[in-house]
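Action item from last week, closing it out:
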Amino acid sequence: MTILVPTLGGGLVVAGLIGIVLGLVPSPQRDVRPSAHRRLPRLSRRSLTLLAAGTVLGLVVALTTGWLLAVVVLPVAALGLPVLLSASDGGERIARLEAMEEWIRSLAGVLTAGVGLEQALIATLRSAPGQVRPEVSRLVARLRARWSTEAALRALADELDDSTGDLIAANLILAARRRGSGLADVLESLAESVAADVRARRAVEADRAKPRTTARWVTLITVVVLTVLAMTGDYVAPYRSGPGQLVLALMLAAYAGVLVWMRHMAAGRRLPRFIGGQAGREATR
């Protein structure tokens, strides 16, 4: 009983990091208000598998070695470390930007043939890159369903959900209103701007990947060293007691807090949107 009380206290400190870890996982924005039972974050099947494996391993370690703290630390580590040490979604965003660039270049090429804006948008469906093909397909479907061009383009901006997509939609909306010439040149210039943005983001993402790689190696070495010391020698013998396991839990929590801080610092902020319902909701906050 003397050992369980501080162990449970340390476990609560470590388990409190679960909320921070889950808070880092992005969730899709929805217009409808979630019900009370949907407000809690849902774990994926992979996360549930890791949590179950960590729990089983923690129980085995606790029963065989007497380290009761493993019952809490190993499940939390199995659930949190893959999130904290995983690569960011910057690569996916960059690939999506490249797809937008390719699509507007294709649209500019079609417009140079002298066709109308709506016909050019429909014609680009076949050559649309995979990252934006679903959005372009829905845009074409709306145009064929007799939506107004501006309404269809605003819906496209909402589905792209990116400031660059808003910029593309804004230029196309202005072209749909004025029906003048020169849109192809504007789109070519916009494509060059997006290409420059992609190059800059790739350089930034490469710099951000270096500290994440270092953190992975440091964490791996730390885990191996702690495991070896726990299984051999008397170096960690003081931590086997109740107060010792509480101190160890606090140190592990501090280390996890540093990982959370590092990931938060390396996470880039998205530029604000200015078209669509999502932009209106952000402006009213």
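Closing note: The longest helix spans residues 183-231.
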